[in-house]
Write a structure and sequence with these properties.
Layout: E1 4-8, E2 13-18, E3 23-28, E4 31-35, E5 50-54, E6 59-61, E7 66-72, E8 78-83, H1 88-104
Antiparallel strand pairs: 1-8, 2-7, 3-6, 3-8, 4-5, 4-7
Length: 112
């Protein structure tokens, strides 16, 4: 899934499901994130809610899979960017193309 940018107005809450290692960046304004760790769903309402406040230019990487509520933190609008984590299939395909095939064909490895 591609990274996307969204404009948030005061009072608006955007809810999205994100995988572990997804990134959220506050481009303009201040954003508030709320989420619960999905691995603790068996606790029902006892699961602690995590609150994160992002100032302009700050980013946050999710430590777990979660449904995330993104909203503005003040009375002004904000712009944020969300970059979903890549799936295991995409990481495997990238490894095959960048590492396995060049080794098999004995091609020179790209400089890192």
């Amino acid at each position: 899934m591609q990274a996307y940018e969204m404009r948030y107005v005061p009072g608006q809450i955007h809810v999205t499901r994100l995988r572990r290692a997804s990134s959220i960046v506050a481009i303009e304004g201040t954003l508030t994130l709320r989420y619960r760790d999905e691995s603790l769903n068996w606790l029902l309402d006892a699961t602690p809610i995590n609150h994160v406040r992002l100032g302009e230019g700050e980013g946050y990487r999710l430590p777990c899979d979660a449904f995330v509520e993104i909203s503005t933190a003040g009375k002004t609008g904000a712009v944020g960017a969300v970059e979903p984590a890549s799936t295991a299939f995409a990481r495997c395909a990238a490894w095959i193309v960048n590492t396995a095939i060049p080794r098999w064909l004995k091609l020179p490895q790209p400089a890192r």
